[in-house]
Amino acid sequence: MANPFNRPSIPDYFISSPLVALLYPLHQVLLRLRGPPRLPPADAHPIRVVCISDTHALEWPNVPDGDLLIHAGDLCNDGSVREIQAAVDWLRSLPHPHKVVIGGNHDSYFDTRSRLEEDRDDQTSNGYAAVSASTASIRSLDDITAPSRIDWGDIHYLQHSAVTLEFTPPSSSDTDSISSSTSALTSSRPRNLTIYGAPQIPAIVPMGPEHAFTYPPHHDAWSRTVPPDTDILITHTPPQAHLDMSPIYSIGCPNLLAESWRVRPLLHVFGHVHYAAGKEPIFWDEAQRAWERLCASRRPRAKYSRILALLGFMRDLLDPAGWVDVARVVFYGVLGVVWAQVWGGENNGGGWFVNAACMYRDSGRLRNPPQVITL
Questions:
Q1: Which Pfam families match (predicted)?
Q2: Residues 37-47: pLDDT tens digits?
Q3: Which residues, at least 6 apart from 284, have a Cβ–Cβ distance to it below 8 Å?
């Protein structure tokens, strides 16, 4: 069986579903032509969010400046307090006023099922014995262990928890060089953002006990877990059909995607899938619904051999529901472009999906640059 975390070849996509493989680039072009999915409030200072993930005990040399730094998990490799603390010390040295971090499947210390022997104590051992595999991934560390041994400093660590941060605009001395016309667009009013973080991942391949926060792939570890007032959602796993080997070989979580639809955050940051780093505008509309239906219907074909996958040609040609969804993706995508670029309409209510994995594939090197989003 091929490793689902390695990107298949382009012929594999086309053989499995030529309809979806050909639609994918058009869909991406239409998304970009629609413009930003959401603009900063006209009466407030924009917030610059810098997103990184999957640094695996390495340090990106020049992290961009910003108001908020987010790390979406896999700080280290072996999950030890030693490696995690070294990564945290690096993050603490960065100048960003606000920093938020969640764990990933390699950050074993934060899941009592996966904690290394060297990092356990008596209380942890008792808690470990009492926690079942079906519940550990969705319970907070604070429920079952002693206080963390990590010195976080000014960093907010989230594990099935939320924090609300206040962002104040630059002082007048910092904005002297800004033209009066630009200054008129902003206000001294502070802004608040509520950020929720959760680390759990579906175990789509067999994972040993050293991997943290895993849950069976068909288990719903997400429904009704994210507060509805969440502005920024941070998870380690991607949602299905977005920056996760999409479209046919999608390995994200469908239940997380449904939860994102329910909450509709301004920004959803994740990592885990190194091959799919990047950012994607989200509009929560019929084009997106149709695209996700197509991906979900073709997803089982990723398990087929090439010979069986060849049947995808016939299935696509004889699938009326698939053709209807293709038409919906194109029609509503073009309508969105006309609304934004021809009629001058403003996109409201959309957001961003960001796969912030810095690790380049499985190379052991950080080559995917940090992603920067302005809210």
A1: Metallophos
A2: 988 888 888 99
A3: 261, 264, 349, 350, 351
Q: How far is CA 267 from the centre of its chain?
A: 9
Of the pLDDT bands very low, low, confident and very high (cuts 50, 70, 90), residue 210 is confident
The two tokens of residue 84 are 């995690």
Q: For residues 302 and 275, what is the distance between their CA atoms, to the nearest angstrom?
A: 16
Rounded to two decimals, the pTM is 0.90
CB 124 within 8 A of CB 146: yes
Q: What is the C-alpha to C-alpha distance for residues 149 and 154, in angstroms, rounded to an integer?
A: 15
Contact 71, 101 (CB under 8 A): yes
| Residue 121 or 262, more confident | 262
Distances (CA, A) of 35 to 32, 41, 65, 254, 353: 6, 16, 24, 26, 15
pLDDT of residue 180: 42
CB atoms within 10 A of CB 301: 19
Per-residue pLDDT at 141 exceeds 80? no
Distance CA 10, CA 374 (A): 32
